[in-house]
Write a structure and sequence with these properties.
alpha+beta, 2,3-Dihydroxybiphenyl 1,2-Dioxygenase, domain 1, five-stranded mixed β-sheet, four-stranded mixed β-sheet, 3 helices
Length: about 130
């Protein structure tokens, strides 16, 4: 079994879509409407869907409380790749918590994408 997609609910679909394309190199597959739904894809085939919160799907809860109770993560092959990704996120205007550092046995950093999506970017040694 393979995870096919994740759907993130955000107030501004276009801004979040543009950030993930610019900062993380995801490919835009389709955008429906000006601010309706965007489908992005990574190089492994996982689809990241960006959509507005829909109350009937439970998506309005995060908007009502003003917080997300989850985060998404990217794993990279080396510390150098994490450092390079950090610079790419900075250049794309990502809100960064701190520069990459040694955390829980790895090398990583966190940033916020538009819509207050917490994103973890890291490398962990094999073994």
């Amino acid at each position: 079994m393979r995870l096919n997609h994740l759907d993130l609910h955000v107030p501004d679909v276009a801004a979040t879509r543009d950030f993930f394309v610019a900062a993380f190199g995801l490919t835009e597959v389709e955008t429906r409407g000006a601010n309706g739904l965007a489908i992005l894809q990574d190089d492994a085939g996982l689809e990241l869907v960006i959509s507005r919160p829909i109350e009937t799907f439970g998506g309005a809860d995060t908007v009502a409380v003003g917080r997300n109770t989850y985060h998404v993560g990217f794993i990279l092959p080396s510390r150098e790749a994490v450092d390079a990704q950090y610079e790419r996120v900075r250049a794309a205007g990502g809100e960064i918590r701190q520069p990459p550092s040694a955390i829980r046995g790895g090398w990583l950093f966190y940033c916020l994408a538009p819509g207050r999506i917490l994103v973890e970017v890291g490398w962990r040694p094999s073994g």
